Amino acid sequence: MARKQSLNRSPKTHPFKRLFEYGHNYRDAIRQATVCSILNKLFDLAPPALIGLAVDVVVQKDTSLIAKFGIKDVFGQLVVITFLSFIIWGLESIFEYAYALLWRNLAQNIQHDLRLDAYSHIQELELAYFEERSTGGLMSILSDDINQLERFLDAGANDLIQVATTVVIIGGAFFILAPSVAWMAMLPIPFILWGSIAFQHRLAPRYADVREKVSLLNSRLSNNLSGITTIKSFVTEKYETNRIAEESEAYRQSNRKAIALSSAFVPLIRIIILIGFTATLLIGGMDAANGRLSVGTYSVLVFLTQRLLWPLTRLGETLDQYQRAMASTNRVMNLLDTPIAIHSGHVSLPVASVRGEVELQNVTFAYNGRNPVIKNLSLHIPAGKTIAIVGSTGSGKSTLVKLLLRLYEIQSGTITLDGIELRDLNFRDLRSCIGLVSQDVFLFHGTVAENIAYGSPDATEAEVIEAAKIAEAHDFIMQLPESYDTIVGERGQKLSGGQRQRIAIARAVLKNPPILILDEATSAVDNETEAAIQRSLERITANRTTIAIAHRLSTVRNADCIYVMEYGKLVEEGRHEQLLAERGIYASLWKVQTGIKSEIT
C-alpha cells in the first residue's frame, strides 16, 4: 500500500506529481498499463496501412509491395493481407482488454489506498481540527473527490497516452512516406497542444471552485440529515429546502462556468483539424494524380490524417476529466498533508500494570483563539479512589476529561499517570486503560451486542451478557424484538436515552479499565433510570480509579473526595459533609438542587 511519507511536498507542487509520488508502489503496474495502451494504439493504427497495401495490390498487381516478397498472384497477396488483418485485429483486441484491466484495477487500488490513508490520517488529527470543519466537507473528500480521481484513472490516463502515441507514430509515418505532405498534416498539432494547455490553465481554478461548492453542498446535506428531528419539530422544512437550493444553485453556477469554457474546446479544435485534413486531401491528391505519390500511399495518408487529427477532438473531454481529477487530487493531498498536532509518546504502559494514580500540576489549557478554560490547575487523584469534579456550566469539568485522554494538548503544566507524563505514553496504552461513559452516548449502526463489545473485539457472548447485567441493561435488552441482535439504528436512535446510557456503561464494564471516567453519565435520564445506573455504577467503580464529572450532586455525595471548579480553577475540595459545612460554592449548588436551606443558612 502506498504510504503517506511520500506526500511531504509543498501544496504548490503540481497535483499530478503529488499523485504520481503517492502511487510509487504501483509504478510497475503503471508501466505495464502504459505499454499495453501503446501497443493497442500501434495495432489500432495498422488498418490504414493494410488498406494502402490492398489498394496497391489492386492497382499495381504484380509490382505491388507484397509482390516484391515473391507473391505475384493478386489473390495470394490479398490472402496475406487478410491473414495480417486477423493477426492485427486480434492483437489490438488483446491489448485493449489488457490495458482496460490494468488501468481499472490500478484505479481501484489507488482509490482504495488513498481513501484508507486519508481516513487513517483523519483519525490521527486532534479534535480541534474537526471543530473547524464540517463532517460533510470531509465526506466529500473521502468519497466524491477520490471517486473523481478513479474516473480519470479508469479512462483518462489511457486516452492521454494513446493520443501521444498517435502523434508520434503517425507523424513518423508521414515523414517517411511523404515528407512533402507531412508538414501540412502536422501543422495543426502545435496549435492544438497550445490550446489544450491554455484551456487547462483556465479550467483549473474553475474546477477547484466546483469541488469547493460541492463540498459546501455535502456539508449542508449531512448537517440537515443529522438534525432532521430538529427540522421537523421546528417546522423548518421549507426554510432548509431553500438553503439547500442556494447551495445547489451555487454548485450549478460554478459547474456552468466550467462547462461554458470546456465545451468551447472541441469546436475550436475541429476547425484547426479541418485545415490540416483538407490540406492533405488536396495537395496529397495532386501529388498522387501527378505520379509523385502512389495511390496506395495517398490512401494511407488520408486515413492516417483522420486517425491523427480527429482523436484530438477527444482531448477536450480528457482534459476536462484531468482537471476535475487534479482539483480533487489537490483536496485529498492537502488533507493528507495536514500536520498532526498531537503525537503519541513512546513509553509503553500495559493495562494490567496500571494502578490509576493521576496527578495534574499547574495545568493551563485554552481552546484555539479563546481564553483559558483551565488555569494553573493542580489536582491529585489517588489510585483506586472515587473522586468527583463538580461546578457550574463552563467551569472546565468536561475539558479535564479531554485532557486526560490527550484529545487536546495542554499549554503548560504536566499531567501524569502512575508518575509517567501523558505526553510520553503511547496513545493506545493510555486510552486503553481509561473507560469513558459520556453524557453524549454514541452508538454505531449495528446490533446491541456489537455496541457493547465495541473496543473489546475478543469478548465472548457470555461476557457481553454479563457486562449488560452489571450495567442493569440485560432486562430491557431481552425485551427488544431480537434481544442482543436488535439493530439500534444510526447513533442508537431506536433506543431511549437511558437505554443508550446503560449500553455505554456495559461497554465500559466489558472493557474493564483501571480508570473509569463518568462524564455526566446520568444527566439526561429520568429518576428511575438514574437509580438503576447508580446501582450499576456502585458495582463497577469498586477497586478502580473513578473520576465522576457531575452536575447532579446527589450522584457524587459518596465520593472519596469532591473537587469544586469555577472558571477553570479549583476552589474547594473535601467530602460531601465537609463541603456543606464550609457553606461555600458546593453548599450553594446543593441548596439550589435540593431546596434544603437549614443546613447552610
Automatic annotation (TrEMBL):
Protein name as it appears in the record: ABC transporter ATP-binding protein/permease
GO molecular function: ATP binding
Classification via InterPro entries: AAA+_ATPase, ABC1_TM_dom, ABC1_TM_sf, ABC_transporter-like_ATP-bd, ABC_transporter-like_CS, P-loop_NTPase, Type_1_exporter
Domain ABC transporter: 358-592
Keyword line: ATP-binding, Membrane, Nucleotide-binding, Transmembrane, Transmembrane helix
Membrane topology listed for this record: Multi-pass membrane protein
Primary location recorded for the protein, binned into one broad class: membrane
Listed Gene3D superfamilies: ABC transporter type 1, transmembrane domain, P-loop containing nucleotide triphosphate hydrolases
Domain (ABC transmembrane type-1) ranges: 33-324
SMART domains reported for this sequence: AAA (SM00382)
UniProt xrefs under Pfam families: ABC_membrane (PF00664), ABC_tran (PF00005)
Coiled-coil parts of chain: none
Protein source organism: Funiculus sociatus GB2-A5
